[in-house]
Inverse folding.
């Protein structure tokens, strides 16, 4: 099998989701807390179906109040304009100086479709196919400016070398985009794409485009199975599977206090709930679970959604993360400055650059 | 009897993607790094400006079928930058230009409401429209909109956005909304509570008759054109750069308000202007001339000529005479920029100008392109700006610095204190929201959605 069972660095991320909070302060506080723990990134979910602010806007507001942590908002591809979405994600990368990600999602309900009045709801399969097209056109648009396109050449009066700007000429099933982008290539080249690959519909898009795949799994076996499938599928798309990070997504409830559970990751393991796999226990026990699954090469890391953000994120950082750091399993500072660097992912080459092929 | 002097409003326009912005100046900074936006926004806030303003472009300009390469190009997505700027400023209003043709009301209303919440009531939306198939090639919808429908869509768009903002009561209760109109058929629940300002401030840019009517019925502020500084702002700018033209524009727009049950103070008129300062009047004139020379490089002069003539003129010498050949009307040689009116007539005018004064191509383009709006010592500029406001040619100004990032520094350091001394500009922020800076009434929440 393709899994590289020599384990790489451990990656940790946390969700900042709070029910319907609209002010900047509490989001900033949580993001700073996560940054204090050296987490790779924070996510903020978004949907048109429940009250809540625009997540990409919130994380743009968080950007100047933080320095290192990755910022990953959910942005749907269903009722939005691909051209605007890629520009907004690229801009988040500019304002955060290379810390942007994009959690790609779809909007499946008829209720959401009515908010826009442009088309009816369609199947998740169709929407994920479209999400793949949006991810494709976004990557092309991010590449539509080569890194050294801006020349400011006084002698010839040229601000840019237009041979280094490219039309993308994308035609998809339901939309087409000419390009180039209005935004110069973002600091990371491609901001980090995150896809929840738990459901079958999303898995192909994840395997083809995601830098980070999230898998909601309650058991190591389940997580390993999805990871193996994702890696194999990524390889079939011509990708090096090692450029895909697979993180297990767990809800965490650390309300039971600080007492450690039994050693190993059996006792305090997650259980399946309607909302997804839930870990309930102490922060030390959680550290055991994380270390155990990671040591066994089952996953590259974890994406944790605190049940009570304020309480649980603090316990996560001060308890779980501190313990993992103490054991030398997790970074104690950020050696890099971009989210790609945190994740150990190279800055992608530009597909349009002369050495890279077609123009 | 002493009457309190009418105070002006000021806004800072981030330097644009056009040849007004002088990139050849060594002080010019990045047009895309966040530090440039942060510097200009902090400078504007230091100067107690009403708001910071970002333009928008949704397709890079093309000329002779190729991407235009002579001007500053490339910019971030407006609302995303403004959310970040909300974190490094406290009082400054934050205005984004966003196209009503290539967006949908639900999503944009939500993004504007979010900015208003995250900034504590400082959001503004400059509504622009497009019917341009060239730009439409980047969007799902394409260039579908008939020119006549641009403002009917924009008006309905703002109407729907306001319904969405009103759909939550000030007490925080969400109510379902429904709208069925010519352009939009939408229903459901809005996901963001009523914004701190009630409604984010709405700005209208452009001087056309439809634009004026749209402003009178719908907008809180007008970003009008000013016939100088190379290419005037807005898509349909006419020149009313003189005081008299300004007064007549001002009177015309304000007169239209009554029909909509609005009073003159409900709509602020703020022309976009450029300023060049010097220690003496002569030095200011010299600097202004130098800047025009930089804005119109030899290559830019030929380009400007080609835009009028509608054909390839690359063989001509920018320091030589104008072409003898006649221009081609309705050429599509340039795509994605403001139309330049009757090009045949313009060509005639330019030829006459060149002949009369014995000017080369480059000199003619510079001469015809007009001067910066205000040129002089800080004292003279302060007095002149104040005169425009006292004589009702403007309620304030949107300043367009000529150099990216640092172009506003000198104005804030040298002119703002003089305006304050005259009693023509605030000496501190009185309120927290952009509406309060602009002296705009709070919108009354509608009773039912």
């Amino acid at each position: 099998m393709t899994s590289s069972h020599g384990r790489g660095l451990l990656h940790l991320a946390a969700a900042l989701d709070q029910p319907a909070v609209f002010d900047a302060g509490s989001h900033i506080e949580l993001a700073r807390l996560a940054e204090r723990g050296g987490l790779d990134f924070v996510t903020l979910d978004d949907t048109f179906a429940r009250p809540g602010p625009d997540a990409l806007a919130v994380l743009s507001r968080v950007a100047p109040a933080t320095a290192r942590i990755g910022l990953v908002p959910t942005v749907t591809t269903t009722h939005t304009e691909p051209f605007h979405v890629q520009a907004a994600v690229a801009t988040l990368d500019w304002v955060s100086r290379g810390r942007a990600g994009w959690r790609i999602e779809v909007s499946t309900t008829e209720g959401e479709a009515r908010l826009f009045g442009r088309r009816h709801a369609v199947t998740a399969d169709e929407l994920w196919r479209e999400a793949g097209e949006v991810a494709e056109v976004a990557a092309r648009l991010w590449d539509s400016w080569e890194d050294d396109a801006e020349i400011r050449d006084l002698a010839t009066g040229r601000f840019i070398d237009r041979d280094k700007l490219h039309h993308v000429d994308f035609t998809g099933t339901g939309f087409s985009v000419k390009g180039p982008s209005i935004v110069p290539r973002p600091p990371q080249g491609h901001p980090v794409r995150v896809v929840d690959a738990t459901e079958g519909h999303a898995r192909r898009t994840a395997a083809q485009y995601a830098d980070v795949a999230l898998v909601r799994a309650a058991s190591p076996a389940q997580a390993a199975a999805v990871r193996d499938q994702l890696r194999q599928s990524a390889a079939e798309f011509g990708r090096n599977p090692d450029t895909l990070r697979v993180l297990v997504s767990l809800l965490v409830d650390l309300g039971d206090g600080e007492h450690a559970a039994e050693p190993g990751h059996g006792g305090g393991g997650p259980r399946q709930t309607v909302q997804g796999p839930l870990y309930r226990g102490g922060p030390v026990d959680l550290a055991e679970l994380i270390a155990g699954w990671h040591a066994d090469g089952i996953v590259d890391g974890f994406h944790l959604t605190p049940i009570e953000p304020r309480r649980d994120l603090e316990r996560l950082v001060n308890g779980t993360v501190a313990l993992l750091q103490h054991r030398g399993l997790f970074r104690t500072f950020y050696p890099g400055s971009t989210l790609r660097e945190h994740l150990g992912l190279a800055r992608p080459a530009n597909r349009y650059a002369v050495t890279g092929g077609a123009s | 009897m002493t009457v309190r002097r009418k105070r002006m409003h000021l806004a800072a326009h981030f330097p644009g993607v056009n040849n007004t912005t002088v990139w050849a100046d060594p002080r010019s900074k990045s047009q895309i790094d966040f530090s440039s936006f942060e510097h200009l926004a902090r400078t504007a806030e230091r100067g107690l400006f009403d708001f910071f303003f970002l333009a928008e472009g949704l397709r890079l300009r093309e000329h002779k079928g190729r991407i235009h390469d002579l001007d500053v190009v490339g910019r971030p997505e407006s609302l995303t930058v403004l959310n970040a700027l909300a974190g490094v400023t406290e009082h400054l209003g934050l205005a984004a230009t966003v196209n009503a043709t290539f967006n949908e009301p639900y999503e944009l209303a939500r993004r504007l409401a979010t900015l208003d919440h995250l900034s504590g009531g400082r959001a503004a939306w400059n509504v622009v429209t497009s019917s341009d198939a060239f730009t439409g090639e980047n969007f799902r919808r394409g260039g579908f909109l008939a020119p006549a429908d641009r403002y009917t869509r924009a008006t309905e768009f703002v109407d729907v956005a306001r319904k969405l903002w009103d759909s939550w009561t000030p007490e925080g209760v969400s109510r379902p909304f429904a709208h069925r109109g010519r352009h939009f058929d939408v229903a459901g629940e809005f996901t963001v509570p009523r914004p701190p300002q009630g409604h984010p401030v709405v700005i209208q840019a452009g001087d056309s008759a439809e634009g004026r009517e749209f402003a009178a019925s719908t907008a809180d502020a007008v970003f009008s054109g000013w016939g100088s500084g190379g290419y005037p702002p807005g898509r349909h700018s006419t020149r009313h750069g003189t005081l008299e033209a300004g007064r007549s524009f001002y009177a015309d727009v304000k007169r239209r308000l009554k029909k909509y049950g609005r009073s003159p103070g409900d709509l602020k008129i703020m022309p976009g202007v450029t300023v060049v300062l010097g220690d003496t009047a002569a030095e200011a004139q010299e600097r202004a001339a130098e800047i025009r020379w930089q804005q119109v490089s030899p290559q830019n002069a030929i380009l400007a000529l080609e835009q009028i003539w509608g054909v390839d003129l690359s063989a001509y010498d920018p320091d030589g005479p104008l072409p003898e050949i006649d221009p081609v009307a309705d050429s599509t040689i340039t795509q994605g920029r403001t139309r330049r009116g009757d090009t045949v007539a313009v060509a005639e005018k330019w030829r006459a100008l060149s002949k009369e004064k014995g000017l080369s191509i480059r000199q003619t383009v510079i001469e015809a392109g007009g001067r910066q709006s205000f040129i002089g010592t800080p004292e003279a500029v302060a007095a002149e700006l104040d005169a425009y406001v006292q004589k009702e040619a403007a309620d304030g100004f949107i300043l367009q610095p000529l150099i990216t990032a640092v172009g506003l520094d000198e104005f804030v350091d040298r002119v703002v204190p003089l305006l304050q001394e005259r009693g023509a500009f605030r000496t501190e922020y009185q309120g927290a929201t952009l509406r309060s800076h602009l002296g705009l009434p709070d919108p009354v929440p509608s009773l039912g959605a």
